Amino acid sequence: MRRRQFVTACSVGACALGLGLPGCRHDAGPLQPQRFARARLVDPEGEPLRAGTLEVGVNYVFHYPYVSTPAFLFRLAGPVAPNGGLSDREGRSYSGVPGVGPDGSVVAYCAICVHKLSHPSPQLTYISLRERLPGEHGVSPHVISCCAQNSRFDPYDGARVIDGPADQPLASILVEHDPASDQLHATGLVGGVVFKRYFETFARRLQVEHGDDERALAEAGGDVVAHRLEAFSGNVLRC
User: Cα-flanking dihedrals φ and ψ of residue 67, to 5°?
Assistant: First the structure.
């Protein structure tokens, strides 16, 4: 598949999902959760991730809802209960997603910055969770910080924009927790997404990385590996 064909396929597939992408026709009403293939989160050895064993404040990276789109999984310092309605760049509202797990502190977000598409990669990572610095704007103990253009997001409040040039929150990944096994499954997402721009911008690289053109556009499902960010990326920038 040539690059132009690949980009067209990406755009058509993303628009078909109705995820509010630029250049796609869509309804003007509130954004609704979108369901994708159910994916169990596992560690690099293939063992199920368990909410109670995740470390607080650690960045875990997995790929969802597509095999080529990175997402973050966090266990935060306390329960996550978004404070109010969120909206995408076009003003369409949606509800934040509460945390899951034994103490309601586990959340997941799309790891592609909505401004310049910075995202975790094996070579270089500009965006990650870190502790809020003394005197830094905000009240949450952690922030998601993108060092490319200094956008910051609040992981305790639906990845709402704290400051910087980003014009909408990071999309929330829907995660289900099984209290009996303590396992975690990704099931969908809600919020404004940038997949069309991402696929168009990185089409050539995605083709190379995934070998099979269609593979880069496939939905993630089955067992999906979550890596610690420092193990996944060779160079994580902090700011």
Answer: -70, -15
Query: 122 is in which domain, residue-wise?
Result: 29-192+223-232
| Domain-located, residue 213 | no
pLDDT block averages, 10 residues each, the chain of length 239: 53 51 59 97 98 98 98 98 89 96 98 98 97 82 96 96 97 98 98 96 90 84 98 95
Q: Note the pLDDT tens digit of each residue in 187-198.
A: 999 999 999 999
Q: Do the Cβ atoms of 68 and 210 come closer than 8 Å?
A: yes
Q: Is residue 201 part of a domain?
A: no
For 28, counting Cβ atoms within 10 Å of its Cβ (0-12 exposed, 13-18 middle, 19+ buried), the class is: exposed
| Residue 19 belongs to a domain | no
Name residues whose C-beta falls within 8 Å of residue 12's C-beta, 6 or more positions apart in sequence: none
The predicted structure's pLDDT at residue 23: 45
- How far apart, in whole angstroms, are the C-alpha atoms of residue 29 and residue 166? 22
**166-169 own/partner pairs: CB under 8 Å, 24+ apart:** 166/113, 166/114, 166/115, 167/89, 167/114, 167/115, 168/87, 168/88, 168/89, 168/114, 168/192, 169/86, 169/88, 169/114
- Position 36 in a domain: yes
- Counted residue by residue, the chain has a size of 239
User: What is the Cα Rg of the chain in Å?
Assistant: 17
Paired sense of beta strands 70-75 and 127-131, if any: unpaired
